[in-house]
Amino acid sequence: MIEIEKAQLAKMIDHTLLAPTATQAQIESLCDEAAKNRFASVCVNPIWVKLCAEKLRGTSVAVCTVIGFPLGADKTEVKAFAASSAVLDGADEIDMVLNIGKAKEGDFDFVQEDIEQVVRSAKMAGEANGKKILVKVILETCFLTDDEIEKCCRAAASARADFVKTSTGFAAPKNEKGEPLPNGASVRHVALMRKTVGNDLGVKASGGIRTAQFARDLIEAGATRLGTSSGVSIVNDE
């Protein structure tokens, strides 16, 4: 079993609030919690990036936002513009959803190009402002076969993304009977993603991470970042 100190675990957490009902007061509280616990970042919708950048100025906490979220079905040029706009607003990290439909039909050239344009746009905007931007690619693993996960990981690596990420946490997969299926991170998928990308990319696990034990299991499987709205309780559970 992996041993990890509370401070180390905190530095791996993207403290997340992506609910459409999130208010300014809740986002400000998120920032305060992230600064107090020294989390890696706050992960918020693009509308809140400017506020978070201002609130977290002078801290070690980065500002992460989501692009093409949660469906991944925006046009590539829209994703690219949204990414550069977010960086100009103060984002340090971009979590983009790849085109899931294109992955399902096996068009991985499209998947790679979609990622590549977002990566290029975000990093160019960062360079213009003297910042190194990280781009994470959300696969939405609950919809993908193992082979598709591997191919998406390779597309992200070829597109020069920095991370691959499991899930949005907003997917609603169902079986043939219409019964809900798991939609978040799993140890098996994290291990598969780590095996595929090796040490070249980070692996972010997100969706359904609510306990310190599950967080440790995911880290042991190869996760280097955790996206969760339960960061405070997780580190306090240590």
Task: Describe what you observe in this structure.
Strand 2, helix 3 (49-55) and strand 3 form a beta-alpha-beta unit. This protein has helices at residues 6-10, 24-37, 49-55, 76-89, 100-104, 108-128, 146-158, 187-197, 212-221, 231-236, and strands at residues 13-17, 41-44, 62-67, 93-97, 134-138, 163-165, 202-206, 225-228. The chain contains 10 helices and 8 strands. Helix content is 45%, strand content 16%. Helix 7 crosses helix 8 (187-197).
Largest sheet: 8 strands, parallel, barrel
Radius of gyration: 17 Å
Instruction: Report the β-strand fraction as a percent range.
Output: 15-25%
What level of helicity do the residues show? 40-55%
Separation, N- and C-terminal Cα atoms: 14 Å
Structural class: alpha/beta
Placed side by side, the strands forming the largest sheet appear as: 1-2-3-4-5-6-7-8
Q: Runs with pLDDT <50, length 5+?
A: none
Report the count of strand segments. 8
Order of helices and strands: HEHEHEHEHHEHEHEHEH
Average pLDDT figure = 97
3D shape: globular
Provide a count of the helices. 10
Short description:
The protein is of the alpha/beta class and 238 residues long. The chain is 45% helix and 16% strand.
Topology of helices and strands:
Layout: H1 6-10, E1 13-17, H2 24-37, E2 41-44, H3 49-55, E3 62-67, H4 76-89, E4 93-97, H5 100-104, H6 108-128, E5 134-138, H7 146-158, E6 163-165, H8 187-197, E7 202-206, H9 212-221, E8 225-228, H10 231-236
Helix pairs in contact: 4-6, 6-7, 7-8
Properties at a glance:
single chain; 238 residues; alpha/beta; 8-stranded parallel barrel; 10 helices; 8 strands; 45% helix
